[in-house]
Amino acid sequence: MAAVNPAGEEETGPLRLQFDRTVKLAFCGSSISSDGGLLLHRELDDALGLTDAAADLIADPRVGKNGRHHLCGLLRQSLFSRLAGYEDVNDADRLRRDPVMRQLVGGRAVKRGAASASAMGRFETSMLTPPENLAILADLPGRWIDAVHDRQPPKVVTLDMDSSESPVHGDQEGSARNGHFQSKCLHPLFVFNQFGDLERCALRPGNVHSAHGWEDVLNPVLARYSAKARPSVTRRRFRADAAFAIPALFDLLEAEGWDYAIRIKGNSKLHDRISWLTKRGPGRPPHHVVRRYTSFHYRAKSWSKARRVVAKVEFHPGELFPRIGFIVTNRSLPNERVLSFYNDRGTAEQHIKEGKYALKWTRLSCMRFEANAVRLQLHALAYNLANFLRTLATLEAIETWSLTSLRERLVKTGVRLVRHARYAVFQLAEAALPREVFAGVLGLINSLRGPPQTATSA
């Protein structure tokens, strides 16, 4: 590999192109970056006080005063690297000279460079893996969401719980063959709210049931939205698929005052209750889908009481048998609206896909289970910061963009650093997004800041 000088340019000088000899290629890595849009994420982070508050909670196991990089700077470098598409520490040696990354990290990194790959590896696999730090990381997504809700209190909260797979291609600790996903994987569990924010997640071995450990993940979230903790919330709703049709979960949600709609598997007794609804009408079948609904009260042996069950029967053209689904709920809505409310949980699956494709949070390549659990939590924090920007500070022109589009068209904005005595000027390319978009986003971010604090006399 060619030698690189501290300014980021090859010592052999610029390259020439044969098709046009007037064109030269100069490699000025310390003054040019492809990730100019991250400056907006850092501004949002500062407005909400996210990484500063997180660094105050995480215990720093280092002793002495010779640490070159502050813990807050290491956390920022870890999160913003993921936002830009660098999902592990392999690119840290190059990013440490990136002008945008150095400015995002702040402190001594602005002049001396950000952390190296080895320093970032120690941060993620050693500093954050003790049980007390891992527990704090698991709480941080909820704390960050609370910081947003303190500024914009919601009146309605809807939670969606679902599991997913993180395929592995080695012998990572905890990985196992999962029959449902038909792959060797780890098996994380997620809870999202209706805004797409990730409330809490947990990494689990690959061969556990989809609902394994649901209490440890869900209970802290329910506590944060209790009437005492969040009095502004007047409606609390919960959705999940058939893997979470657990009697203890029904009892908990009812005791905490949550409305719920949870799919349950069919059995012979349930099918007997709707047998009259599964008969086709006389004549030729129509060329469109025919849907029928009914509801009734049903009590399984393991349930503490009878509960309302909504059934949907669908006749599809060209199919001999109808499609049947059952939803257990404590809502008093009409049957069609209960099913519509439940079907909206598909957005949770979309949020998981965005995390997989935009943030690469399935990239869990460490051998130790604790290290991969840390990586998942760091991906969750990066995901939330990206989603906060989308839901809180995007203009109408880009508010429907996916996280992948925001990364490719906003984050990946070319920028050139021109440093003066007092200021650092980042000259951004205007080909993808004009100045008006950046100005509008910055205006929305500044509206989230609290009123300036005035000095009080002693």
What does this structure look like?
This is Transposase DDE domain-containing protein. Residues 17-448 form the Transposase DDE domain. It comes from Paralimibaculum aggregatum. With 458 residues, the chain is an alpha+beta fold. Among the domains are: 1-28, no CATH class; 29-130 and 393-446, no CATH class; 258-330, no CATH class. The chain is built from 16 helices and 16 strands. The strands form four sheets. An eight-stranded mixed beta sheet has the order 9-8-4-10-11-14-13-12, sandwiched between helices. A hairpin with a 4-residue loop joins strand 8 and strand 9. Helix 3 (71-83) packs across helix 5 (99-105). The termini are far apart. The model is unreliable at 1-7 and 453-458 (pLDDT under 50).
What layout of secondary structure does this protein have?
Layout: E1 15-16, E2 24-25, E3 32-33, H1 38-48, H2 50-57, H3 71-83, H4 92-95, H5 99-105, H6 109-112, H7 117-127, H8 131-151, E4 156-163, E5 166-167, E6 176-178, E7 183-186, E8 189-193, E9 198-202, H9 214-224, E10 235-240, H10 247-255, E11 259-264, H11 268-273, E12 290-298, E13 307-315, E14 323-329, H12 335-343, H13 346-358, H14 369-392, H15 403-411, E15 415-419, E16 424-428, H16 435-446
Parallel strand pairs: 4-10, 10-11
Antiparallel strand pairs: 1-2, 3-15, 4-8, 5-7, 6-7, 8-9, 11-14, 12-13, 13-14, 15-16
Helix pairs in contact: 1-14, 1-16, 2-3, 3-5, 3-14, 8-14
